[in-house]
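Researcher: We plan to redesign the surface later, but first we want a full-length starting point. C-alpha cells attached.
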C-alpha cells in the first residue's frame, strides 16, 4: 500500500483450475508429482513475458523442469 502497488498485486491461495485471467508472475510451492501435471495450466495463465516461480522441486528432479 505504501509503495502504490496495491491495485496491481493480488495475493491468494488458489487451485490453478479455479483461477482465470493472465498474470505477470505465478508462484507454486508444491511437490513435483503435483506440479508437473499442472504445468500446462500454469503456462496458460502466465503472460508470454511472465515469470513462474516454482518451489518444492528437489535437485534430482531439476531436469524434468528444464
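Model: Full-length starting sequence:
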Amino acid at each position: 500500500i505504501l509503495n502504490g502497488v496495491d491495485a496491481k498485486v493480488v495475493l491468494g491461495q488458489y487451485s490453478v483450475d479455479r483461477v482465470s485471467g493472465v498474470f505477470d508472475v505465478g508462484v507454486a510451492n508444491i511437490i513435483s508429482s503435483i506440479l508437473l501435471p499442472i504445468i500446462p495450466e500454469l503456462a496458460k495463465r502466465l503472460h508470454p513475458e511472465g515469470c513462474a516461480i516454482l518451489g518444492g522441486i528437489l535437485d534430482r528432479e531439476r531436469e524434468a523442469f528444464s
